Amino acid sequence: MKRSDIVRSIQVQFKHMRASDAAAILDTVANQMIESVADGHRIEVRGFGTFQPRARATKIGYNPCTGQPMHLDASTTILFKPSRELTKKMNE
């Protein structure tokens, strides 16, 4: 599903809404989620799941072509944990 599909779905559900308004709402929600996770906050969307930043420690990795060890810097990634409802729906 693409962004335009989500905008169209919002527009179908709320018939009075223009596509540009639906897109603006979607952009606002996405930007707020991005800012919150980037600031280190956990986001919970009930019925969907949680997003939270997860720190990764510095470690030694290996170059897949040469097999030589290489230093991998510490980084932060995003952990997504699906809700029970989403997991149940996926396994139906």
UniProtKB/TrEMBL annotation:
Which GO biological process entries does UniProt record here?
chromosome condensation
Which UniProt keyword terms apply here? DNA condensation, DNA-binding
Q: Which SMART domains does this one have?
A: BHL
- Signal: present as a keyword of the record? no
Pfam families attached here? Answer: Bac_DNA_binding
Molecular function (GO) terms listed?
DNA binding; structural constituent of chromatin
Family the entry assigns:
Belongs to the bacterial histone-like protein family.
Q: Which PANTHER family match?
A: DNA-BINDING PROTEIN HU (PTHR33175), DNA-BINDING PROTEIN HU-BETA (PTHR33175:SF3)
* Protein's name according to its UniProt entry: Integration host factor subunit beta
Q: What organism does this protein naturally occur in? A: Candidatus Enterousia excrementavium
